[in-house]
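Example (one chain per record):
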Amino acid sequence: MISKITLLLLTSEYIGGLFFFSKKKEITETKKNIETAESSMICKFVLDGTGKKIGESVSIDHDVLIIKSRSQFLGVPLKHVEPGEKTLVVKGLFDYTKAYEMGEKWRKESYREMNQHDSSEEKSKRL
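Predicted structure:
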């Protein structure tokens, strides 16, 4: 009787362990696929629908691709970006004003320019 109970417990633990570990593996693989897709879109030239170069992709913020265009940052929703082998293409019409607003929002929230000649006060604050 005790051996049957032990066997039943070991079997249920084994089956339960397989279920929990396999679920974790699926979640991990999904995260890796998303990270791979996002990282494959960084550091590529971005073209508009006519083939004119807009700039270079530098980041992804939630569902917005951030593009560095000269000295400005532009934001384009990922649903309007078609990945290519070596470049990214913005599908449809490119709304420069809206893209500039989204890029500036990103820059203000997460971009910090580096200065070689920071004052000693700023250095002490960071350390």
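Caption: Residues 3 and 94 are 71 Å apart (CA to CA).
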